[in-house]
Amino acid sequence: MIKERTCVHFGAGSIGRGFLGQLYYMSGWRTVFVDVNAKLVEAISERGEYVIEIAEPAGCSILKVRNVRAIPAEDEQEIAQELGSCDLVSTSVGANALPSAARTLARALENRAAWRPEDPLDVLICENLPDAAARMRGWMDEAASPLVHRFIRERVGLVETVVSRMIPVPSPEQVKLDPLFIRVEAYDRLPVDRLAFRGPIPRIQGLEPSDRIKALEARKLYCHNCGHALVAYFGYLKGYETIAAALADRALAGRVRAGMEESGRALAAEFGFDPAEMKRHIEDLLRRFANPALGDTTVRVGRDPIRKLGRQERLVGAALLCVRHGIEPEALCEGIRAALRFDPLVDDGARALQAMLKAGGTQAVLRKVCGLTESDPLWSRLAGAR
Fold first, then answer.
1. What residues does each domain of the chain span?
2. For residue 223, how far is the Cα from the chain centroid?
3. pLDDT, tens digit, for every residue of 31-58?
4. With bands split at pLDDT 50, 70 and 90, how would you rate the model's confidence at 1?
5. Alpha helices, DSSP H only, in the chain?
6. Domain 215-382, what fold?
């Protein structure tokens, strides 16, 4: 009899339920979610399944994800029991919650490290966080006993991934009707760091092992995230509610494409991407962004502009990469200026940014938020913004 394969997944939110859970189910695996949200844990445990709505321009289809259960994040004894026999671990808890999840994982590995010290265990880190594997190893080491510390060092593979599936946040009305409701796009590929696995790479639908994960992470940030942000900020300023509506504006779509092409040329120069491949990638992203069935909004995609305007982030980082390779970041700088004017009242980050601008002006924001100084090549292009 073939043993059922199990993944313990930390995080039953959008990426967990709306992406990883689907991949595991489609591959014949069982998924055990670990989450801090008691309502989600209760709903998953009661039903043993949930529904994903896959949104495509021609219409939506429904997929039932079965063979799932959930454990409260505070129940480390039950987590340890599942970790003792599981075949894989993955995380999608968000950057702020990852330290806590990593420490919980380290403590719960005590029995596994004692009972199966020679068996490898790989962890797919599905987080939007630079150097996620190194950071997670540090957090795990903080909580690990000497036995677990050695097991982590020798047998645990911390595998970075590139999550590109777009999953809009459900409305309060949708959540009220069904706390497990999730709408996703059809895109289902997950690049993973081939070199980080300690055990055999699992046969899971959508996994794409790669030897150049850092290049793919940079492409995700400076092309996908960058383009999505450009649509949001340009679209918001022109009064568009949804991303799809903004991209239906041909002039606006042209500025978004221009910014992505600037970044694409810089990525090709920095990482060796084929320029023709980059152009195809950009066109595919624009097609996906424009999917009206997703219903994603400019306010949601643009939210938290203080983080998104960081020096290494999607807009400023992409513009600096352009300058490094002699590419004029005209459209990208236009996007940064648009982000400085993003002011929806429902977003705390946007309100904080506007307060900073009012108190200290653009130059203060360029220093404090964007990490730029007068000696940076972008300074003269942005210092007069507003």
1. 6-211, 215-382
2. 13
3. 999 999 999 999 999 999 999 999 988 8
4. very low
5. 14-15, 21-26, 38-47, 76-85, 98-108, 110-115, 132-143, 146-155, 172-177, 213-219, 226-237, 243-247, 250-271, 275-289, 298-302, 305-308, 316-324, 330-339, 348-368, 379-382
6. N-(1-d-carboxylethyl)-l-norvaline Dehydrogenase; domain 2 (1.10.1040)
Flag whether pLDDT at 267 surpasses 90: yes
pTM above 0.70, yes or no: yes
Q: Which string of b and e fits 121-146 if b means at least 16 CB within 10 Å?
A: bbbbbbbebeebbebbbebbeebbee
Beta bridge partners of 191: 208
Given a contact cutoff of 8 angstroms between Cβ atoms, the answer to whether 33 and 68 are in contact is: yes
Tokens of 1: 């009899």
Looking at residue 346, the DSSP 8-state letter turns out to be T
Closest CA relative to residue 309, chosen from 346, 341, 271, 265? 341
Torsion of CA 3, 7, 8, 12, to 10 degrees: -130
